[in-house]
Design brief:
2 domains; 19 strands; alpha+beta; 326 residues; five-stranded mixed β-sheet
Length: 326
């Protein structure tokens, strides 16, 4: 009996000794991303600076901090990620993490990684987007569209047909324009492009048009949406769907973003063509021309903005066109 007691005491003492020798791991506390004392991260992220790296995201993690290998509870879309800065092409940025940016949260949209500045170290957490098949709002696009009464626009110039949808008493095209040349060759819209110069992309996403030809794209009886048209659409859908406006506008093909197309608008992530000739953001964003007091502007749907006008518009870049009935 005495031998058993001595053996148990020895095991217990050994366990305590091992526990005391083990290094402590501190899980960083989540900071309030809206802390007004944190500077805008744009002061810590600079373009055209490439980080030297040995890993995909190339972010240092202190041994005293946890870089989470598990995902956050899944979110329905990137819109639900709480971050101060959202960015793509992370390799083009230099990220500083110091006392002046403590608690700053940066979301790398390309790799679905949320980075938090904690005590001079960037801590990574992978963000999972919920499986659409298990989401409460994720009945299939086909199932949602059963109750949408689509009309048809037949373009007499080239014979192409497009679905249309009435939203708030306004008849919108529910597909992107793909007009290039009339059947008789009398009308031709140059300065328009297929994504990556592939005709098959025009068949799916429509054409991308430069500013100078936008007024020639819509058929008779239809016009390029005005700033008022876009604003009213956004207001109506915001009232009806709240923070899920993006999902209600989007249809299929979107990377990491939920899409239900409950509005019937059917926005596809067609991307855009830059003035330099490069193509960007297909499956990630949609851009549409609009006109505000005669000035052409671009409205966008992407991860951060459900539907918003771009601050700057480059006339030589090319974007999609939707038309509205007169």
């Amino acid at each position: 009996m005495n031998f058993k007691i001595i053996l148990c005491l020895a095991i217990a003492l050994t366990f305590i000794a091992c526990t005391e020798d083990s290094p402590a791991i501190t899980k960083p506390e989540q900071e309030n991303s809206s802390n007004s004392e944190n500077p805008m991260l744009s002061s810590s992220i600079t373009e055209d600076t490439v980080m030297s790296s040995s890993s995909e995201t190339n972010l240092p993690v202190s041994s005293s901090l946890v870089s989470s290998s598990s995902s956050l509870s899944c979110v329905e879309s990137v819109d639900d990620v709480e971050a101060d800065i959202y960015t793509t092409n992370i390799e083009k940025h230099k990220i500083s993490c110091g006392p002046e940016s403590e608690g700053m949260r940066v979301f790398d949209m390309d790799h679905s990684i949320l980075m938090t500045c904690v005590e001079g170290t960037l801590v990574e957490t992978h963000v999972e987007i919920c499986d659409k098949s298990s989401s409460n709002s994720s009945s299939s696009v086909e199932a949602v569209e059963v109750n949408i009464n689509y009309g048809v626009l037949e373009d007499p110039r080239d014979g192409q047909s497009y679905k249309t949808v009435n939203i708030g008493g306004v008849e919108w095209m529910a597909e992107n324009m793909n007009f290039y040349e009339s059947a008789d060759g009398s009308i031709k819209v140059d300065s328009s492009f297929c994504y990556n110069d592939l005709p098959s992309n025009c068949s799916v996403y429509g054409r991308l048009y430069q500013s100078l030809v936008v007024n020639d794209v819509c058929p008779d009886g239809w016009h390029v949406p005005t700033n008022s048209d876009w604003s009213k659409l956004n207001s109506l859908l915001s009232y009806e769907y709240g923070s899920s406006v993006g999902e209600a506008l989007r249809k299929d093909e979107w990377t990491r973003l939920a899409s239900t197309n409950q509005s019937g608008f059917g926005a596809l992530s067609a991307g855009y063509r830059a003035k330099t000739g490069g193509y960007y953001e297909i499956t990630d964003a949609a851009f549409f021309w609009g006109i505000a007091n005669g000035v052409k502007r671009v409205w966008e749907i992407n991860a951060q903005k459900t539907l918003a006008v771009k601050n700057q518009t480059d006339a030589y870049s090319s974007y999609s066109v939707r038309c509205v009935k007169n």
